[in-house]
Amino acid sequence: MSGEKSPGDREQRVDHIASELRSHATAVFAAFGAVCRSELGLEPETVLYAHLGPLYIATLELDQLEGAKPDRTIRREWRAKLAQKWREWIRD
Fold it and tell me: Which of 14, 53, 54, 82 gets the highest tally of CB atoms within 10 A of its CB?
């Protein structure tokens, strides 16, 4: 039947989407880490541990981000947003 995708096509799409998602998540976590280090002087894992506790950190499965290449544009945008929010919060 025309128009139907083969299982291999679907698998490739799923792999592509998973790769993009990992790239975006890695960019956000890298931005968070940069702000934690520059603004708080702490490692991001320390901040997460202090706010969420070890059980919630385990559910984040940050090890899934290993080897993913962060999208530079997304990282830059998130770093600016997170730094701005942090600075607004400490001013209040």
Answer: 82
Q: Per-residue pLDDT for 74 more than 80?
A: yes
Of 48, 65, 66, the closest CA to residue 57 belongs to 48
What whole-number distance in Å separates Cα of residue 77 and Cα of residue 91? 21
CB 87 within 8 A of CB 38: no
**Furthest C-alpha separation in the chain:** 62
Distances (CA, A) of 71 to 21, 29, 31, 41, 47: 10, 11, 11, 24, 23
Radius of gyration of the chain (CA): 17
Full-model pTM: 0.81
**Best CA proximity match to 71, nearest among 37, 33, 2, 22:** 22
